[in-house]
Write a structure and sequence with these properties.
binds magnesium ion, single chain, Rossmann fold, 10 helices, 2 domains, alpha/beta, 10 strands, 23% strand, 273 residues, four-stranded antiparallel beta sheet, binds adenosine-5'-triphosphate, 38% helix
């Protein structure tokens, strides 16, 4: 079946899909191969400033691999990734982060023995830096430390973690650890926040709270990309949804069109329509 041709309601050509506007992220012809496996194959889409864009697809579709390419964990096999107008494909993840791109991970990356504050501050430290300046220019270093503390405290407040700031992160519940990951990403004060399955393992109340937070962050001016299997949440919070299946982009549109898209339904249900 050629899924890319099977939907009568798709409004955009998946290989050239983009909307006119102020684009923060432009992914063009992106491929990532692992030996013979085409984990991501010639994917093109863009994200406008202030949008929440969902990235969905069945297990193994290439969502995390695409995130890893954009955030610099993997160098792409081919293609271009422009962030805020500049090419970032193949740059080191720390350099991409400093340009204002923050991400969370599908699997928690929490340092259990470190305090909640120190876990979250690693995001701000990545942006602001400390160690070299503390040796060379103590005055400037103090200013940087204040900036790091300020960004960390703001992120802790946003994610209801301030009362746990001095506790070891290992004491937190699973839901709070997920919040810690987002707080760490936000302490970087990013332009683009990329969340990889933020609702995984959360209960209904926590998921509803997450959805409110994500929309509030968008309302404050942040641009967000969201990989998620929780479809009600994706449909509720995303303005636009990009769908991958076995590494290929099969649809790109608003939630209503994606919900009714035959190729998307076939990808999820394993149906050949
Ligand atoms: N580092 C790697 N080395 C080799 N193969 C990989 C690597 N990372 C991912 N893959 C493979 O690439 C494909 C896409 O994986 P990826 O993790 O991107 O999927 P996904 O859409 O995030 O899936 P899920 O919803 O299960 O998280 C899979 O076949 C996976 O096994
Ligand atoms: Mg994944």
């Amino acid at each position: 079946m050629s899924v890319a041709q099977s939907s009568p309601i798709r409004t955009m050509n998946p290989t050239t899909a983009h909307r006119a506007g102020d684009q923060l992220l432009q992914v063009s012809g992106l491929s990532k191969h692992f030996a013979g496996l085409k984990a991501v194959s010639e994917v093109s889409f863009s994200v406008e400033k202030g949008e929440i864009v969902g990235l969905i697809g069945p297990n193994g579709a290439g969502k995390t691999t695409l995130f890893n390419c954009v955030a610099g964990a993997f160098a792409p096999t081919a293609g271009s990734i422009k962030f805020d107008g500049q090419e970032i494909a193949g740059l080191e993840s720390s350099r991409i982060a400093r340009r204002g791109l923050a991400r969370t991970y599908q699997n928690l990356r929490v340092f259990s023995d470190m305090t909640v504050f120190d876990n979250v501050s690693t995001g701000a430290i990545g942006r602001i830096g400390t160690s070299l300046w503390s040796a060379l220019a103590p005055g400037l270093s103090k200013h940087k430390e204040e900036q790091i503390a300020e960004a960390t405290l703001e992120a802790l407040r946003t994610f209801d973690l301030i009362e746990f700031a001095d506790q070891p992160a290992g004491n937190l519940s699973y839901g709070q650890k997920k919040n810690l990951e987002m707080a760490r990403a936000m302490s970087l004060k990013p332009k683009l926040l990329m969340l990889d399955e933020p609702a995984a393992g959360l209960n209904d109340t926590e998921t509803a709270q997450l959805a409110e937070r994500v929309m509030a962050l968008r309302d404050s001016g942040l641009t967000i990309m969201l990989v998620e299997h929780d479809m009600p949440m994706v449909m509720r919070v995303c303005e636009r949804i990009v769908v991958l299946e076995t590494g290929k982009l099969i649809a790109n549109g608003d939630p209503a069109s994606i919900r009714n898209d035959k190729a998307v339904r076939a990808a999820y249900l394993g149906e050949d329509q």
